[in-house]
Design brief:
The chain has 22 helices and 10 strands. With 521 residues, the protein is an alpha/beta fold. A 5-stranded parallel sheet has the order 2-1-3-4-5, sandwiched between helices. It has a 5-stranded mixed sheet with strand order 7-8-6-9-10, with helices on both faces. The N and C termini lie far apart (110 Å).
């Protein structure tokens, strides 16, 4: 911020000389005004802030020193530099009496003037920094007192330094609003403490700038990287919607805001603050990146547990059956009832019930839930970082979809391996009269299950497959002219040559002999 300077001299030429030297100095100075008398200079000071006065000490009617005394009454901290062409001890003595910063003799060399002005700028900058530090310290102390009072059972005494502030804020009504950054742990994960602090400072600065730009109220810092806004009651909703939009647009975060009821008295702000915190807790149910006004809790309602075991059992069956639609329906029944879960622990207890039941069911099939899900790298503790039921539901849905698909793919691979082993077994025993029952017994399955799996994988009934591969082997053997037809029939397990000929013709449309003639064997 520039430093305002007032130039005073009854000689127009000398006054213009001063103005040009100040403007061309390159220093952070702004000419607040020029005056040719002490009276005119005082009029300027009554309407404008002046930090430095550069004045002739000998002027008619009101001397420079008389003007300086009156100027000090308007601004006790103003810095005064006298310029005079009269080398007289009396004037110097008067300058000392009014605590002038310096006394310069005309004609003033540019270097002397610039050196003096530069020294004054440094002094004023230093004073400003000290004043700002003191103001910030007082502001921080007052803010700490306000927050401490809101969060404690203490009463404010009339002499408390924050009473006037709170009374001013509530004069036209005010509401306490708690602002919380969403997904803070997730978004700052893996960065250093210094980077984390810088990101938070930048985000909070954006909120502060917006609140100040629209005069939304007074901001205070709370624990756990939250902010408290004591908002003007009539403008609360608009102000808070603006904060939501500003954070979305200017930062990498979103915020959720809990708003208490507007109050008209300072002592009632405690109630509004409690309501704001209670409203923010509803983020768990209602979701984030939004404004949540306080609503009294509905009593007399509780969750029904009549069919929860039935829903859980059906959900586990659907996971095993790779029915993703049914899995989603089951989770929605558990998590989206008309009476929502009141807290995280209740949801965590439900998740433990689901995973425990699923793990027990998988163990019966020689599977391990945590090995299948690779839960070494995806620790269940991560659930405790989620901020809403919706976040937890989304994570559980993805994991259960993944589990169901993994189990399905694993089952498909196991079935494929079984079918391959069954086909190999059939090829090794083509010379025997094999039935589905005998094959199922060999592999330790029921005939119905093995027949179903075989048909599902190959699209062919087991009996049809047996007949087909046996005939393919017969055709290969018929191509060997050294083998008699009855020898081939005997080798392939046909005890009756007539039955062999009939079965071959039924499948191929010609007898074994006709087959050899056709292929010139």
């Amino acid at each position: 911020m520039s430093i305002p300077i007032l130039l005073v001299d009854d000689e127009a030429i000398d006054l213009e000389w001063l103005r040009r030297r100040v403007v061309g100095s390159g220093l952070n100075l702004e000419v607040a005004g020029t005056a040719n008398s002490g009276f005119a200079a005082l009029d300027i000071m009554r309407t404008k802030t002046v930090d430095i006065i550069l004045s002739d000490i000998r002027m008619p009617i009101m001397t420079g020193t008389e003007f300086a005394r009156k100027a000090r009454e308007l601004n006790p901290t103003v810095k005064i530099v006298f310029i005079s062409g009269h080398e007289d001890f009396g004037y110097a003595k008067e300058a000392i009496e009014v605590h002038a910063y310096k006394y310069l003799l005309k004609p003033v060399a540019d270097d002397d003037l610039f050196r003096t002005l530069n020294e004054l700028c440094s002094v004023i900058d230093s004073e400003r920094q000290q004043e700002q530090a003191i103001t910030e310290t007082l502001t921080l102390a007052s803010a700490e007192l306000v927050v401490r009072w809101l969060e404690s059972g203490e009463e404010l005494s009339a002499e408390s330094p924050v009473v006037r502030l709170l009374e001013q804020l509530t004069r036209n009504g005010a509401a306490a609003c708690v602002i919380e950054l969403d997904d803070l742990e997730w978004k700052l994960k893996g960065i250093s403490e210094e980077e984390r602090a810088e990101v938070l400072r930048g985000t909070f600065r954006a909120i502060h700038r917006y609140v100040e730009s629209v005069s939304a109220g007074k901001l205070f810092s709370l624990k756990d990287n939250r902010l408290l806004l004591l908002s003007v009651a009539q403008q609360t909703v608009g102000n808070l919607e603006g904060v939501l939009a500003e954070v979305r647009a200017k930062t990498d975060f979103t915020v959720t805001i809990g708003a208490g009821s507007p109050v008209g008295r300072a002592e009632d702000l405690k109630m509004s603050y409690r309501e704001a915190k209670a409203a923010l807790q509803a983020k768990w149910i209602l979701g984030k990146n939004r404004l949540i006004p306080y609503t009294p809790y509905r009593t007399g309602e509780s969750r029904s547990t009549d069919n929860i075991e039935e829903v859980l059992e059906k959900l586990l069956e659907d996971i095993m059956a790779y029915d993703l639609v049914a899995i989603d329906d089951g989770l929605l029944k558990l998590f989206n009832e008309s009476v929502p879960y009141s807290g995280k622990q209740e949801v965590y207890d439900l998740i433990i019930r689901i995973t425990s039941g699923l793990h027990a069911r998988l163990q019966k099939q020689n599977e391990n839930l945590y090995e299948v899900l690779n839960w070494e790298s995806q620790q269940p503790e991560m659930l405790f970082h989620f901020e809403t039921v919706h976040d937890i539901l989304s994570w559980i849905r993805r994991r259960f979809f993944e589990l169901s698909e993994l189990l399905y793919m694993k089952g498909q691979r196991q079935k494929r391996k079984l079918i391959q082993e069954l086909m190999k077994y059939v090829e090794q025993n083509l010379d025997k009269k094999m039935t589905l029952k005998e094959a199922a017994s060999h592999f330790g399955f029921t005939p119905n299950y093995l027949g179903f799996v075989f048909k599902e994988d190959t699209g062919e009934a087991f009996s049809d497959y047996m007949t087909r591969v046996k005939l393919e082997r017969v055709c290969e053997l018929l191509k060997d002219p050294t083998l008699k037809i009855y020898e081939i029939a005997d080798r392939m397990g046909y005890m009756n040559i007539i039955y062999f000929n009939r079965q071959f013709k039924l499948a191929m449309g010609l007898t074994p002999g006709e087959y050899r003639k056709k292929h010139k064997i």
